[in-house]
Amino acid sequence: MEKLDKKLPIHLEFLGGGLAGVSEISLLYPLDVLKTRMQIQVGSQQYKSFVDCFFQIVKGEGTSRLYRGIAAPIMVEAPKRAVKFAANGAYGPLYKKLFNEEKMTQKLSILTGVSAGCTEAVVIAPFELVKIRMQAIENIGRYHSTFDCARDILKTHGLKGFLRGMEATVWRHAWWNGGFFGSIFWVRSHIPKSDNHKTVLLNNFIAGSIGGTIGTILNTPFDVVKTRIQSSRITNEWTLSHLLRLARTEGASSLYKGFWPKVLRLGPGGGILLLVFEQYKVLMAPYALQC
User: Rounded to whole angstroms, what are the CA distances from 211 to 29, 34, 110, 157, 288?
Assistant: First the structure.
């Protein structure tokens, strides 16, 4: 019951990943808004901390602003997380065969995670663009809804406008998924196995939370760059060149803007993702045998 590589038919894994993703984002989305606001600001003129950011938004804009732009990620969350887990499950056997390995190894778990992240990024980049535009404080009065924002991007830049930040999104998801799945493999290899259902659930939450935290530590610099690119503050330059320029002009600490709300979301969020997905696999196992 603990194994991440236990296989379900692809359509069932796709559905399970979607359910896990929607569960996570429904609980923790406000932290994503705080993260974006802090990543966009240059210096610390407006928000001194993510707690200060939270209270400024609630006091000045209303509690509903903490959910601004949620329509876009909700629309893509099911396919996004579905692609994450389904792609990771598909790449595993492929790489085991390619590298003549009988079982999943630490290196292969990282490689499958990176590959799944790159695949996931291609699916979600346009939706991430709309979400970032909606969350940015300077766009509060500009867009009436998520669909109004998408329509404006299409009208102004055409379909290619939705590709803005694609390369940075690939970097972000490659690092996060590599850290997430690689950490889960390592944690599971060091946690004593158990047949107790509650212990298995707890182990899955612990492994996912550690994976989410490690993934966040690794990918935050790329997330900052992606947010800056998609918020229209800078030109759509290559990710690594902007990362170096950002460190040079605003200091190395700027690469971790918004880290705390991000890790508070994606640490426990990674645990929720894995727990829901693994529990779903257990529930669906009898139906999988009939497929």
Answer: 19, 22, 11, 37, 27
Predicted structure pTM score:
0.86
Quote the tokens at residue 185.
Answer: 């493999």
Q: How many domains does the chain have?
A: 1
Q: Give Cα separations from 226 to 77, 122, 267, 268, 270 (angstroms).
A: 18, 14, 20, 23, 21
- Per-residue confidence (pLDDT) for residue 44, from 0 to 100: 63
4 part of a folded domain: no
Sole residue written with tokens 């880290």: 259
Instruction: Evaluate whether 29 touches 23 at the Cβ level (below 8 Å).
Output: no
d(CA 41, CA 47): 8
Task: Give the three-state DSSP class for 129.
Answer: helix
* Residue range 40-81, pLDDT digits in tens: 887 767 888 999 999 999 999 999 999 988 887 777 777 777
67 within a domain of the structure (yes/no) = yes
- How many helices and strands, by DSSP H and E, does the chain display? 9, 0
* CATH number for the domain harbouring residue 50: 1.50.40.10
DSSP character string of 160-224:
GGGGTTHHHHHHHHHHHHHHHHHHHHHHHHHSPP---HHHHHHHHHHHHHHHHHHHHHHHHHHHH
In degrees, rounded to 5, the angle at the alpha carbon of residue 184 between the alpha carbons of residues 183 and 190 is 90
At position 260, the amino acid (one-letter code) is W
Residue type, 132: I
Radius of gyration of the chain (CA): 19
Task: Return the SS3 of 40.
Answer: helix
Q: Which domain holds residue 132?
A: 10-288
**Rounded Cα gap, residues 277 and 273, in angstroms:** 6
Question: Six-digit token pair at 124?
Answer: 């979600």
- The answer to whether position 3 is within a domain reads no
The per-residue pLDDT of the chain, averaged, comes to: 88
